[in-house]
Amino acid sequence: MGPEAIHDLTSAYALDALDADEAHEFEEHMRHCAQCQSELADLQEVTAVLAYAAPPAAAAPALRGRILEKARAERSNVIPFPRAQAQARRRTTWILGAAAAAAAAVAIGLGIWAATLHNDLSAERSAHSRLAQALAIAASPGSAHVDLTGANGSLAVAPSGRGVLVIPDLEKAPAGKTYEAWVIRGSKPSPAGLFRGGGSTVVPLSRRVSPGSVVAVTVEPKGGMPMPTTTPFITAKLS
Questions:
Q1: Nearest-CA neighbor of 161 among 216, 215, 210, 206?
Q2: How would you label 79-108 residue by residue, b for 16+ Cβ within 10 Å and e otherwise?
Q3: Rounded CA separation 43/27 (Å)
Q4: The domain containing residue 85 runs over which residues?
């Protein structure tokens, strides 16, 4: 692989999409490449936030009941250990318990996801579409990543100008209010999306972000405004 092409593997490595040989080659390269180290750190932050950015949903009571019944039924499948093995048994009990808990959590999580799709398919598709769009922007080769001022998180902008705000710990907007994103070119702000916040927040911007633009966030009345009515409390400038 050419010396320049290997830089394009950063996003695929962050998503664990490389085969073993490609991953090894990239890791060897990254030991001496500050650019790839920085880009990988930004992408890993984004993917970590995206993992928790889907809206929560309550498990169906019937599903939860079935899982608990299965778990209780498994308790009778106990193999007696001789007394000499008691110490080893104690050492392994917590490991087996942790593994069982993890498996149950996965099963419940999948059940919740399936139930949510069944009960509100269009909303779930919309949420996953936004997450996929955001990840595509953040992981696009050549994307710029800019730290936010006023909050933890970053602005990612693909070479096409498509942008996404990633904010790990944004409080929910006050009652009757909404957060509104803006793309400011020169002195002209253009609305770029509404969102409520609350925990991990991912906001694909509805307007292109060109070099020199500022992306800002304000608090506005519910429904948004055509122009900002408050001072931005989050900003990021694309150089």
A1: 210
A2: eeeeeeeeeeeeeeeeeeeeeeeeeeeeee
A3: 15
A4: 61-121
- The total number of residues written for the chain in this structure: 239
Is residue 33 domain-resident? no
In a domain, 137, yes or no: no
Tens-digit pLDDT profile for the chain (239 aa)?
556 677 777 767 776 667 788 888 888 888 888 888 877 776 666 666 555 555 555 555 666 666 666 666 655 444 444 444 444 444 444 444 444 444 545 444 555 555 555 555 555 556 666 667 777 787 778 889 899 999 998 999 999 999 999 898 899 999 999 999 999 999 999 999 999 998 888 889 999 999 999 999 999 999 999 999 999 999 999 99
Q: How far is the first Cα of the chain from the last one, in angstroms, to the nearest whole number? A: 30
Q: How far is CA 170 from CA 125, 153, 190, 225, 232, in A?
A: 23, 9, 22, 21, 14
Beta strands in the chain (DSSP E): 144-147, 154-157, 163-170, 177-185, 188-195, 199-204, 214-221, 234-237
Number of domains in the chain: 1
- Evaluate whether 174 touches 23 at the Cβ level (below 8 Å): no
Q: Residue 200: inside a domain, yes or no? A: no
